[in-house]
UniProtKB/TrEMBL annotation:
The keyword Membrane applies. Keywords: Membrane, Transmembrane, Transmembrane helix. This is Possible high light inducible protein. The chain crosses the membrane at residues 21-42. The gene is hli11.
Length: 46
């Protein structure tokens, strides 16, 4: 059986995914900034 109807995605899920992506990008930028300023991947640990 093939369903020809397009799948509908709730607006809340789309907003949540965009928000998760933006937070992930911010975390990556923070990681790179911490590495550039301290030389450690996780500041405070060896």
């Amino acid at each position: 059986m093939k369903n020809n109807e397009p799948k509908l995605v709730e607006k809340e899920k789309i907003v949540a995914e965009k928000l998760n992506g933006r937070f992930a990008m911010m975390g990556f930028v923070a990681l790179v900034g911490a590495y550039l300023t301290t030389g450690q991947i996780i500041p405070g640990f060896i």
